[in-house]
Amino acid sequence: MAYVALYRQWRPQRFSEVVGQDHISQTLRNAIKTNRIVHAYLFTGPRGTGKTSSAKIMSKAVNCLNPEDGEACNECTSCRLINQGNSMDIIEIDAASNRGIDEIRDLREKVKYAPVESKYKVYIIDEVHMLTTEAFNALLKTLEEPPKHVIFILATTEPYKVPVTVLSRCQRFDFRRIGYQDVIGRLKEIIQTDKLRINDRALETIAHKAEGSMRDALSLLDQCVSFADGEISEETVSLILGTVDLDVIKNMVDAILEKNLVSLLTQVNDLVDDGKDLHQFLYDLMEYLRNLLLVKLSWGNNKVPGIPDYLYGRFCEQSALFSERRLFCLIQTLGEVEPILKYSSQPRIALEIGLIKAAGQNLTEEIVLEKKPALSLDSQKKVPTGTEVTRTEIQKKVVPGFQSDDAPNIDIMTIRSNWKKVLEGVRKQKVSTYAYLVEGKPLEVKGNTLVLIYKPNFRLHMEHMGLPENKSLVEKVLLSVYKMKLSIQGCLAPSGEKNDLAEQAKELFGENVVEIK
To answer: Is residue 507 part of a domain?
Structure first.
């Protein structure tokens, strides 16, 4: 007999075997016991959480000849036919490949016929969100008033794509991601029954990478069993997943802390030579930093959700070297690199730039200026009027060539308060343009021109932002956000002259991130 994959071998056959969905299993069992079965159900939730399995169990339970406490007996003729996939009254439809109006019309014609050998005819429509609008409209009337012998069970991972008119006609059940400990418990049952050899750390790695999907966990376990000659180790799982060893990530974080750029670039080069997926590495690095932050925030608590006990000591030791703000800023900085890395034709360069930026930054682009003694009110009165520095003079120092006194039609504070909307609007339309725009900060509005200031090391971003296609896109988004036509102009901030520009720095970056020393 051909080999059957583990996730198929261990598919739940009773509600009590469905892991992590007790709130749904109990409700469905009670409905069957009290004969409160409705005509349409909608099962939603992430992949691998038991939606289709629960639909099949439900179809067995409502047709079982000898139900026990709302459960199918799995022994009667009806249960055996359904388990074997030979029942003519349980119809499974894959909406991804049968999504048109013709298939739904065919269903409407057949739904009126009585069941051949069961009490109910059950239609299980998987990935129902893939149906076309016309198909949904054709299904609507049948779904609203089906024959008494018909039950519809719709399953989807994306309920927001299902029309509201369909949602309102179904009893909805939301399946949750399966808990980390629940996945481990189920895997241990399977390992003991099948007499598999795997160490606890490898098991925890599999459960962690499954991200709440039991099917993913079983598929990964199946793959590891095929690969390993003897006991499955943590190294085996990492090799199968293509992930980077934790020691490598730890060394990378140490290099960021020490601002050792040579070590950073060398380690990236080693990753490329080993054929590692750089996007996956960035994901693992951000997750590692997140764990450091969680341990830092819950100092003294030996139980941190999602962190295995054997790793807690390592995270405690390394997190002590960072402040909470520093870890937060690192995660935020690398998070900005992720969408660029995903679409970049040069992912290695994008990752290197992101890591260098993470190593070189100091708490949310903090500007540290030398502290001068505060002037008393008396001393301030003695300052000659002629020595006062106006805002225009400061702007001339920051951006050479500023000489316009045009009265703007919109103030700069309004621009800055809605700047995140502009960035998000640009990002949705073109990620590369977003990457160039995000490094610029709104400086001032001159008439109908918005001036963006870039740091000297982002000259290339400013130049790309000046290209017609990028400039046109941003100006369209500005029009939609601010309801007025604005053009954009870039300029570079000079290096140096920090002490004169303290007030300007505060205005640009916020008082909470500017420290004057």
So the answer is: no
Residue 385 counted as domain residue: no
H or E stretch covering 123? strand 121-126
Cα–Cα dist 323/108, whole Å: 63
Could you tell me if 139 and 111 are in contact, meaning their C-beta atoms sit under 8 angstroms apart?
A: no
How many whole angstroms from its chain centre is CA 496? 40
DSSP-based three-state secondary structure for 232: strand
Residue 511 dihedral angles phi and psi, to the nearest 5°: -65, -30
Q: How many angstroms separate the CA atoms of 450 and 409, rounded?
A: 11
Q: Are residues 26 and 158 in the same domain?
A: yes
- Structure-token match 């050792």, residue found: 260
- How far apart (Å, rounded) are the C-alpha atoms in residues 175 and 165? 21
d(CA 375, CA 390): 18
Determine the angle formed by the axes of helices 101-110 and 133-144, rounding to 10 degrees: 20
Amino acid letter at 449? T
pLDDT tens for residues 261-278? Answer: 999 999 999 999 888 888
Confidence of residue 58 (pLDDT cuts 50, 70, 90): very high
